[in-house]
Amino acid sequence: MAIKILSVDDEQDLEALLTQYFRRKIRRGEYEFTFAHDGVEALRILLEHPDFDIILSDINMPEMDGLTLLAKINEMRDPALKCIIVSAYGDMENIRTAMNHGAFDFATKPIDMDDLERTIQKAVEEIAFVKQAQAEHHALEEIQYDLNVAREIQRSILPDRFPAFPDDTRFDIYATMNAAKAVGGDFYDFFLVDENHLGFTIADVSDKGVPAAIFMAISRTVIRATALSQLSPGACMARSNELLCRESVNGMFVTAFYAILNVHTGDVVYCNAGHCPPVWIRDTDGTALLPLTGGMALGVVPGLTYAERSIRLAPGDSLFLYTDGVSEAQNPRGEQYGEIRLMRTCADARGLSPRKLIASVSLSTRTFAEGADPNDDVTMLALTYKRDE
Questions:
Q1: Which positions carry the signal peptide feature in this UniProt record (predicted)?
Q2: What is the pLDDT of residue 146?
Q3: Which residues contact residue 27 at a Cβ distance below 8 angstroms, ignoring those fewer than 6 apart?
Q4: Are 266 and 385 in contact (CB under 8 A)?
Q5: Which one of 245, 282, 319, 368 is most buried, by most CB atoms within 10 A?
Q6: How far is CA 222 from CA 83, 110, 228, 304, 324, in A?
Q7: % the chain with pLDDT above 90
Q8: CA 174 – CA 190 distance, rounded (Å)
Q9: Is 210 in contact with 183 (CB distance < 8 Å)?
């Protein structure tokens, strides 16, 4: 692409001088000159053809002088457009004014063409740098736009309407997911397996960012589709593991907890595939971490079987599910929030609704972090069992 130069000077012989001196560059398509004879004509040309790279402008001209033209050029706010001011050597006051108002460089009359060529070349190098920076900035904006769209898509695939089951008084459920980056690898889900059973799950992909978000979407789809076929939690995890082993790349895997609640009896059957143990908040008898079931994360080794365990929730009992972005939240001294603090916070929140329970844990972890940014995705799901009415 030729460097487009607009020469603005009321002296007619300058056009012939520039054309003759730069004839080889013009012939090779490196430079392309356009000529105007005052600032008004130059401004009209700029408005009609705003793709010039360099303005080579005299200061003292009729109609509109070079300083006024420079002010108009500044209004265009194009950092890649460079203005070189030309004036008599004795006109240093105006030259200095032009430089203070954004001119890239200057040349004095009578023009030393060799010096002008070096000045133009410096401007060309600066223009190339600015355009590269603009291209990189535009690329970053496109990436950010794509990430924003991806974040909205990711949020849209997770249940986000609460109360989730407004006509069902047998249980209450609430969940949140906050990614450490634009998109994340955590997810939660819940659904009625049938009219008597509620399935709910939480999971954490091993990576972060876009790769984790893609694998998260795959994992969530696999687990939900498998769970809705009415498999038990252990069978669901085993089948999901087989499918995710086929999809996993770069050693990615996902830890997951999946459980089914009998909404009439409070019985919960669950399977833990390498995930953080949920907190059981008993309405009258303290808190405890649910025992693990010994299962490995999904997507690592095919052919595994997954064990199950069961508990019975009394009316008023709650389960708090979370990813390690909660328990491993750090303060500026590198200390982790930990399961002990989490259980204490859950105990203090006994009797609160799932929404308020999650808000209480969120406040506790933020206070502990003392303003430090989270280094991992933070996802929480809370479920309270009520009396079967």
A1: none
A2: 73
A3: none
A4: yes
A5: 319
A6: 60, 77, 10, 16, 22
A7: 66
A8: 10
A9: yes
Position 389 confidence tier, pLDDT thresholds 50, 70, 90: low
> How buried is residue 151: exposed, middle or buried, by Cβ count under 10 Å (0-12/13-18/19+)?
middle
Distance (Å, whole) CA 182 – CA 28: 47
Write out pLDDT tens, residues 269-305.
999 999 999 999 998 888 999 999 999 999 999 999 9
CA atoms within 13 A on the CB side of 353: 9
- For 113, the token pair is 């063409």
pTM: 0.71
Strands (E), the chain: 3-8, 31-36, 54-58, 82-88, 105-109, 171-178, 186-194, 197-205, 254-262, 267-273, 279-281, 287-289, 309-312, 318-322, 378-385
How many other CB atoms are there within 10 angstroms of residue 302's CB atom? Answer: 13
158-214, pLDDT tens digit by residue?
898 999 999 899 999 999 998 877 778 899 999 999 999 999 999 999 877 788 888
| Residue type for position 50 | P
| Token pair listed for 252 | 């990615």
SS3 of 166, please? coil
Q: Considering only CA atoms, which of 248, 343, 380 is closest in space to residue 301? A: 248
Beta strands in 222-306 (DSSP E): 254-262, 267-273, 279-281, 287-289
Residue from 254, 239, 276 nearest 184 by CA: 254
What integer pLDDT is reported at residue 388 of this predicted model? 58
Pair of tokens at residue 37: 């004879």
Kindly tell me the burial class for residue 144, based on how many C-beta atoms sit within 10 Å of its own C-beta (0-12, 13-18, 19 or more): exposed
